[in-house]
Amino acid sequence: MNKIIAIVGLLLALGLINGSIYVKEQHLAQGEVVKLKLAPVDPRSLMQGDYMALRFELADDIDSALPEAESHSFLATNSKRSEGKVIVQLDEQGRASFVALDNGQTITVKQRKLQYRVRDGRVKFATNAFFFAEGSAQIYEAAEYGEFRVNQQGEVLLVALYNQDMQILGAQH
After folding, report:
1. Are residues 51 and 17 in the same domain?
2. What Pfam families does this protein's entry cite (predicted)?
3. Under 8 Å CB-to-CB from 133, ≥6 apart: which residues?
4. Alpha-carbon distance 120 to 107, whole Å?
5. What is the pLDDT of residues 98-154, one digit of tens each?
6. Is 79 exposed, middle or buried (0-12, 13-18, 19+ CB in 10 A)?
7. Are the C-beta atoms of residues 35 and 93 closer than 8 Å to each other?
8. Which domain holds residue 142?
9. Average pLDDT over residues 166-173
10. How many domains does the chain have?
11. 68 with 102, same domain?
12. Which of the 8 DSSP states describes residue 48?
């Protein structure tokens, strides 16, 4: 009987993992491209290998627009967690600029809603790091934009980094 429970549990776990992988793969394949301007941050981690810590200018816009109860200073002292959506305007190259925090208003054809999280007093998107092969840090020093795939719910997945001329950096996906 214990073997049957273990096998059923294993099959259930594998099914959930594979389902999650399938959803992310569909998100990457079908998500709309949105590019966010990077804000300067120091790359490198000796324990994790080479990576670039990421911060986005849009996060500063969101932080400024958040009500005082959710602002950086309040969160830093109270360790609250929150999340929401931001409305961005897309240009012809898919670059996003801040419009407003989402409060249920309708958006235009050129606008999108993106999910964000506030953790430890900082506004974050899907990730705050971009990992790359050891020894290729120089390739990513010119990074100016992060390319995300956005699904219908506004969830974002980072897929690439671009320079100021909108040329992809590193290996193509």
Report:
1. no
2. GDYXXLXY
3. 50
4. 30
5. 999 999 899 999 999 999 988 888 888 877 777 777 777 778 778 889 888 988 888
6. exposed
7. yes
8. 33-162
9. 76
10. 2
11. yes
12. T
Residues sharing a CB contact under 8 Å with residue 145, sequence separation 6 or more, in sequence order: 35, 36, 37, 38, 95, 161, 162, 163, 166
Q: What is the pLDDT of residues 65-87, one digit of tens each?
A: 887 545 444 444 444 558 899 99
Determine how β-strand 156-162 pairs with β-strand 145-150. antiparallel
118 and 84 share one domain = yes
Answer whether residue 170 is part of any domain.
Answer: no
pLDDT at site 108: 93
Token pair for 144: 């100016």
Reported as a single tens digit per residue, the pLDDT across 46-68 is 445 566 778 889 998 998 888 75
